Amino acid sequence: MRRSTTSDARKKDTREKIELGGLIVKAGLRYEKRALLLGLLIDAAARLKGDAQERSRLAALGAEAFGERDD
C-alpha cells in the first residue's frame, strides 16, 4: 500500500513539473537560460506579494494567452 501511495505522489509531482515546463514553452521562453527564468520567477513572486492589482493584471494576461476570456 505504501509503495502505491509513493508511486502516485511521484507521478503527480512529475505531471505537475511537466505542466509547469509547458508554461515556459508557451510563454516563448524555451531557449532562455535557467538562471534567467528563475530570476524572472523570483522577481514576479516579489512583485505579487501584497499587490492584488498586479496579480489581477497578470492573471488576465495569462488567461488571454490560454484563450480564456472574462467577458
UniProtKB/TrEMBL annotation:
InterPro entries: Conjugal_tfr_TraD_a-type. It comes from the Bacteria. NCBIfam families: PRK13847.1. This is Conjugal transfer protein TraD. It comes from Rhizobium altiplani.
